[in-house]
Amino acid sequence: EVVVSPKELAVTWTNAADHEYTSNVFATPVATITLDGNEMKLSVAEKDNKVFKDADTYTFIASYDDTNYTLTGATITVEVTKRVIQIPTIASKLYNGSLQTATIPASNFYTVKENNGGTDPGKYKVVLSLDANCEWNDGTIGDKELEFVITANKITVTWEYTGSKVYTGSVLPNPTAIAADGSIVINVTCDATEFKNAGTYIFTATSTDKNYEITNNTFEVTIGKIDNTITTNDSYLFTYSGNANVLTNVSALEGATISY
User: Fold this and answer.
1) Is the pLDDT of residue 253 over 70?
2) Who contacts 125 (Cβ-Cβ below 8 Å, separation ≥6)?
């Protein structure tokens, strides 16, 4: 009895590298053999009939109908890895009095699940839903919650102070802060209980409207000491008598002490 064994033919694979998910169907790997000096293309099928697209492991099997030949290297595995998606940066917007939502970069790999925004300055939630075949660049998967910020509109005020810069003995008027937009009410507060005595005072301007932020919101005023000169209309020469002598027609500013 003579047994003739099938001839072994080595399979050569091309287009068989691993892939990163793209949302498109990949081309099936190509298997060929060389027979009698000629290259022949073989039939190739995915073992479980899976569409070669999603992030997964795929097994491809090459086949040749002629029973006189047996194939070596007829099976390969190819990986489709999850695509890494950069978490988008959500830019803030300035308050403008109207409803505003986040501007989100377009992508084929995530969808916007929540982006309601708001009108007033503050923080608002944005939720992105990720394609199951992807992962975020921080290694997480699934929904990603981000923050959209509406910032207060910045305004500049003009400071004015017309009061004395020298101690007078009286409470002085606060400086005023005037906004370019006259419709915005500005409050001015002092860092001291009373704006009166010699010293340096810091005043702070705030807006009653939370939608605006004052940039140059502080102002400094220094009140100097006064040269308190004692005046009298008379000259005095006393002869000791054993009794108290009294000065008359002597004046000084309020708060001064006269010693003699």
Assistant:
1) no
2) 114, 116, 145, 146, 147, 148
